[in-house]
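Think of the structure tokens as a kind of shorthand, similar to the way a musician reads notation: each symbol stands for something richer, in this case the local conformation of the backbone. In the example below we present two proteins back to back. Begin with the first one, reading the sequence and then the tokens, and try to describe in your own words what changes along the chain.
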Amino acid sequence: MKSRRNTLPPGVVRGIRAFEGSHRGAAREFGVTVTTATNIRLGRTRLDVPDEPPAPYRRRLTDDQVREIRASRATLADIADRYGISVTMAHLIRVREHYADVA
């Protein structure tokens, strides 16, 4: 049986937490049981959802830097140190899984 825990989107959980009225009002507003709304608002459940949504992705590297990484014969560790990124990120750039839009 599928757990109902995974059916509430993070935005709904944040909405329930931020709701100004009663637990019953939050339950009515968001279509959940009073118990669910109460548990979310009192921090008993859904602690995995942060109060703020994640920041939008921002590019750390310029297109020229990405091209340099792909053309470089240096080790991934050296590239990571030079550009202030992780070794994994350096690898993903080289195999074009990140920054795929850069030619």
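Once you have a description of the first chain, move to the second and do the same.
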Amino acid sequence: MSSVIFLSNKLKESWEKNVMDKKTNEISTNSNLLALRKVRINTIEDYCKLLIEEMNKINSKYMISDVEFVDIPVPGNSKSALNAGRIAKKIDNEYYTEAYIFISNPYLGSRNIFGSQQIFPGLSYLIKNYINSPSYELANHPIYFINGSTDSITESMIKTLVSIELMGIRYVQLFKSKKEIIKKPKNDLVWYSNFISNNENGDKDNNGVIKTDYYEIDYINREISFSTKTFKEDDISKFGSSDRFFVVKSYPALILADQDKYRIDVIKIEKFMEKYGKGRSNFEPFLLFAKKLRERDRF
């Protein structure tokens, strides 16, 4: 019995819609289509065929036969998560979700948005929706991040990919080779913290503290404290997508800290959200998940 990949109609429209060049006042071809043509993919339909082929290679049990663009690919995510989708199997005229997918645009524009912008807040919605489940996974089904970008992979993108894999998200690369990811993630909080801080030699200070842009750990006393360092509180109007960049780097740390029995401190994030109300759609699920992990440790 075959499955279908459901993606958003709005995603398809954003890839196909031609744009007005503000300098020349002329219509130009969509950047996503231009990016695909560079790798000999001429239409969205051709892109979908490649997506089906690669996903069936990753997991043949899905037996994916089609990609459908619909108004609500993942319930609750239609407005806030353009790049969210799901794999579903039809049984007795009903579609049952087998996995969730998040897909990058063929043309990124800015490498900084890679991963974080496509996965969140869609994943945040799923985490919040299933927070009361008995499982301690991020969602109730497998999650895939599909790198459909034709851009080469930079060091900053590799850091994001390492974070994604440590979150338990399966990575699929449509173009180029996955060998471009030169770092194999280690299931270790100290290693991860040094890695995202460009301290790959593993140097530690005398006090047993490692500081990153998103949190600091005291690996001697087994404590992790999440930070608002990147939120630009001195000029909150520049907050931008700080919440997305924060959660994509902080969920792996939260999961690894729980694994290694660290005390988890999220008070600064709670106070920031209460004071400014920024990033609520991503911070609330993060705090709920942290609370769920801390409560498990009491038993």
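Compare your description with these statements about the second chain. The first strand starts at residue 3 and ends at 8.
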